[in-house]
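Forum: Protein Structure Q&A
Topic: Joint prediction for protein chains with partners

I've read a bunch of threads here and the consensus seems to be that you should model interacting components together rather than docking separate models afterwards. I'd like to see that in practice. Below is the full input, 832 residues plus whatever partners are listed. Could one of the regulars post the assembled result?
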Amino acid sequence: MRPIWKERPSPGYQAIKALVLGGFALVIVIPILVVISTSLASDRDIIDAGGYVLWPSHPTLKAYQTLFGGGLMGRAILVSVFVTLVGTAIALAVTIALAYATSRPVLFGRPVLLMVLFTLLFAPGIIPMFLMVKQLGLLDSLWSLILPGALGAFNFVVLRTFFMNVPGELLESARIDGASDFTILRRIVLPLSKAVVAVVGLFYAVGFWNAFFNALLYLNDTSKWPVQVILRTYVLQGKSLSADQLGVHPPSQPQSLQMAVVVVALVPIAMVYPFLQRHFTKGVITGAVKG
Amino acid sequence: MISRRRFLQVTGAAIATSTTLAACGDGGASSGGAKASGELTLPTYKPFEGLHPDFPGAESGLEPGFLKFPADAISSVKAPPLKSSVTALTETFATPPPPMGSNPMWQALNSALGGELKLTIGTDPGYPEKFATLLASDSLPDLMWLPPNQGIPNIGPMLEAKFQDLTKYLSGDAVLEYPNLAALKPASWRTAVVNGKIWGAPIPSTPFGQVMMGNPKTWAKVGGLQCSTADEFFAKCKELSNGTNYALEPAIINMLHMFGEWFGAPNGWRVNQDRSLTYLYETDNYKAAVEYAAKLWAAKVFYPDLNLADATPKTVNGQIAAQVTVGPRATADFRNLDPTLFVDTMIPFGHDGKAKPTYDMGYGTVGFTPFKKTDEGRIRELLALMDYLSAPFGTKEYLIKNFGVEGQQYQLDAQKNPVLTKAGNQQAPGLVSALQIMNSPESVIFNPAYPEDTRKIYATEQKLLKYAMRNPTAGTYSDTSSKLGPKLTAAFRDTIVDIVTGRQKMDAYDAALKRWKSGGGDKMRDEFAAVLPSSVPVTGS
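Posted by a regular:
Agreed with the consensus. Here's the joint model:
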């Protein structure tokens, strides 16, 4: 008799599986479809549907035209892309260098250093951060969005743990062959750690892309605001409790425009996933076992 | 996805805000405040002359109505106010404007002012954090808008330490040097007084509070929105609800506010004969309103999705019959979606057809904008700027601030009303919202596209004013209320929503009230009672 996992699954079982998985897929796809449909819907569609539209019967690109017709959105996308690309590159470089250095046993006084790094896990609070940014002269500069977040302690720990599991013998043999630390990192450790670097890079990229609070605090020039801040103002306009209490009440933005902003904020970062997905699953599993 | 570090940053941020300002003083804002406030002479009220509204306003709060924009706008200031540039922190409730460099409307305003007005524009939520960081970093702009309701604590000590006392420039007849500021009503000025001193020009918004609005097409089936008893309202709601359509939007707290008015609940605090205070939640009237709401919920007349963000489209298409809006002028929100729709506004009625209902007026201003400590010359310059930006509806300055330049940001339509052009629609909204939040004239009713609406809203306001009640503590400050008020209110409201929606029994009310009192409610009462101005009448008298 063959073991059970080698049996052909029964049609009934297949059907149940398809149903459950299909159901889950719908739960994920429908909200995104609604967001996209609503962004393309006409005012009439939206009123008839009472808010969200599943399928626009009079599709129009009006919302997107308004959005890109001279407002801040075009610039905001450039700002977000810049912050995400440059931020992720800098953050990865800093984190990899630090993680590699602290993962090697030769470094003197490592426990003390680790203690110091451990404190990085705790946020300093907004006012000290603001004072720091101000003293570095970064106020109103895009670097204020990049540099304070350039080293994520959590990502650092993940990367360091991974590097520590690279066999010491491998590195030793490279050293005997005359490789410097930098060569070892570049030629041996990094190629072995592609998956985890991709995952950490994704964490950073999504973090930079989604960040809005720093921008609110450090950037006074509205033309430097990233997409998320703009998204927030579009979606929250007319829904502010404090504005209601005070009797000032700008009308909400049309639902289609709100959803168009959501699409614009969602699509660029969502496009990164397919390229990283392979590494992503691998990276997560590696982390799970070697954690 | 939120990485761990980001998460910690955000949490850290929340904690930091709640503790930082506490370090600025020990919360002694209330000591002697009432006495000093009693001795203060408010700025002399002198309405702006030369404007002729179609429907006159009144000291009661009734807003003047204009059927069309006054032709040949007059000038309300003699000279451009500024000699050098001014920095200011303000907030926009609209989407942010293009920056000064690429915003011709902003540049036009600057040249009209005679100097650059450099605005740092905050957003909501997030403004108190921005305010706190600027304050802590000691790099204050010349002007900082101070919202009365976003939980900025230790107002009194903070103002004394960092901002300019403007009493001698504004009190009594001194204000007459700034005619547009003299045209702000005493009720508005009261909200700019702390510790018996004037700290800035108040920023009037509509003095009216929330109202219930309903789609007349929907309500026609049951004989209209207006009712004379709570039972009648209940029966109508039941008739309008059938499992796909519902009578009421699911904003329980706002709806309770309306029911409370029918049951005679006070606006915030009730002033008793001995001048002690009783909070809304402590009154039997409010408790009765909660019971009434629970009865309505059980009858399934509320739209069932409590997370519905905006009921307006559903009111327009008839899925929901009535919702609560910010005030009687909100009819325009519905016109935006459906130009043929003018919604009805519910006039409060006594719950049993005999009792006198109340109508809760709003706070009336959005606070005031204090000045950074500076010398007399600069103070005069900034006051002139305040005067300019407070120019009444119908003046040249009002046009420049709200509509820009004719032919560029706005055009005159057939009735000679200013209408934003395409360029104006891009440049104006965020900027105008930010300017209006730091300075405003007294509000008016003006619906250029639907002049008939102005007439109707004016009539509604007159009816509402018959039952008007003001919050006796409006314009006074309690430190406990700033610090703990929002948290206490949220906790109590959670219980009420649970009771209304049937998740808790009515006896949870008293337990929640006890927690509210011991958690800071009693302390708030003492602080407000200590600064209660003697001019505030006993409630119901």
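The two ends of chain A are 39 Å apart (CA to CA).
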